[in-house]
């Protein structure tokens, strides 16, 4: 059995007056690509932020390799967990290379300047994200997809063993969506633990080895694609008739609604 990276035990989260995660328990395997699925408002971002230590549970706990995430200092978390938020910050007066270099902060000593190893790490992730030609361009002069790739590159530059990404394929064209999934699979094969929120069920089914399906602030199912992608269950969760197929071309999930549905 794969080692467990994240262990979430009966975790609840309150935001304002609402309980938006209710007693969620799950174990996410180390060294694998996991996808969090579910309809709008299901609690995916909330769970991801809980894993990242950006939210505290009102009840229950979250452990990363046995250590409570909330007991870690910000610096300890930054060395272990890189996080790509759903919305890329706008209006930062930085070039792409300067922005991606921010990912190296956990590796720099106080008041120290980037070393050749930091510049090499930034160069490598700019190449992985096909951003070399835009290194000197300002962030606010990028397209939505280019800015998304810069945010992913910043997180990759952090070289943390755990990578959490909230809807990273937002704004990405098809090629970039597939390239990113392949890159995440390679990182997982090299030992990284990766959790991404995805809305594209077909993309998730064909690339992630562990799927967690959420609805209404609760975990509905967690495991392999075969165990999670049950058409009646998905149709109930999404409130829409869905067909699930798996053949030579991989998984295919599509609407099964009649034209007058
Ligand atoms: N600051 C907040 N205060 C109160 N409720 C909130 C707050 N932020 C989010 N929520 C609510 O928490 C629930 C879960 O939100 P969350 O962002 O985790 O959902 P999600 O599954 O990521 O949705 P989406 O697919 O739309 O991004 C939603 O019903 C949302 O309205």
From TrEMBL:
- In terms of superkingdom, the source organism counts as Bacteria
Give the ABC transporter domain ranges: 6-241
Which molecular-function annotations from GO does this UniProt entry contain? Answer: ATP binding; ATP hydrolysis activity
Which Gene3D superfamilies does this entry report, sorted A to Z?
P-loop containing nucleotide triphosphate hydrolases
UniProt key word ATP-binding = yes
Pfam annotation, one family: ABC_tran
UniProt cross-references to SUPFAM superfamilies, sorted A to Z: P-loop containing nucleoside triphosphate hydrolases (SSF52540)
Q: Which keywords describe this protein according to UniProt?
A: ATP-binding, Cell membrane, Membrane, Nucleotide-binding, Transport
Query: Which residue stretches, if any, does this entry annotate as coiled coil?
Result: none
Query: Key word ATP-binding present in the record?
Result: yes
Looking up InterPro entries in the UniProt record yields: AAA+_ATPase, ABC_transporter-like_ATP-bd, ABC_transporter-like_CS, P-loop_NTPase
Q: Which family does it belong to?
A: Belongs to the ABC transporter superfamily.
UniProt-recorded name of the protein: ABC transporter ATP-binding protein
Which organism does this sequence originate in? Crenobacter caeni
